[in-house]
Amino acid sequence: AAKDKGKNSFHLYVPNLEQAVNDKMTIQNELNRALVRQEFLLHYQPQVSAKSGAIVGVEALIRWDHPQRGLLLPDQFISVAEETGLIVPIGEWVLRTACKQNKQWQEQGLMPLRVAVNLSARQFLKQDFTQMVAEILEQTGLAPEYLELEITESSMIDVQRATQALKELKQLGVHVAIDDFGTGYSSLYYLKEFPLNRLKIDRSFVRDMLDQPSNQAIVSTIISMAHHLQLHVIAEGVETKEELAFLQEHLCEEVQGYLFSRPLPSEDVAFYLQAQKGAS
Ligand code: C2E
Ligand code: MG
Ligand code: MG
Ligand code: MG
């Protein structure tokens, strides 16, 4: 219909907008069904000691095995899940599945490691969030120190609620990391006030680090600041040996990225852990 109004009309753009709205509604409807039909799955990306090369943790990353469109990455559906509030039940599923899986690896006799789970601000800031975490740990039998929650600086918007939640989580014994550190709006003040365990240096600083002195300065400064504040630090998106060497030299404790491994199905993680056990 927009076409009838002539080719110089702004209305020419309307069909795209309609398409976008329709796409969003389709995704929303499908997300609802995906939970019921169990179309979500988790891949796990190893987190490695920069010193020894041993796998010390894994980050759980959601995937959607869509019946028509195949395997979808979070960028293709998480924002819609957040806008519609579906991220809350989806996030609960992620948390339960990751804890259950980690417990299962331990029961297989594999070396105990942390599992890191990404949280959206909406999920983290809910009043009953800590209660839910406690219940999941209880139901799955996973000890709290083997769970790390990754929050972003956007969760700090509600300072009071965030402080409360972080205190409760600390009490529970669960670890908390700030993901994508340095890309959000949080004030350094909160680093001092909030009970945190780890900073994750965002991939954008690690990338091109070797040809951009400004990125090197940012990365080395984040590492030393973290250490002064008694926080651990992990770099994400490590793709080259040169990046690894720089991070090791600056005493970054842990690294994660394609240099070591892409996110893997759970069976492949078990295989790696088994190999690691055999080697040590
Ligand atoms: P993130 O938490 O910062 O996760 C790291 C992302 O970087 C992952 O993308 C991972 O596959 C990718 N990555 C890891 N190493 C490298 C590398 O060396 N090079 C490059 N180019 N990329 C690397 P993925 O799995 O597509 O996830 C994207 C984002 O979606 C995550 O970013 C996280 O913010 C969000 N997300 C993933 N799973 C969940 C979830 O269960 N709940 C929520 N709320 N968000 C999630
Ligand atoms: Mg993350
Ligand atoms: Mg990240
Ligand atoms: Mg990132």
From TrEMBL:
Residues 24-277 form the EAL domain. Signal peptide: none annotated. This is PAS domain S-box protein. It comes from Brevibacillus fortis.
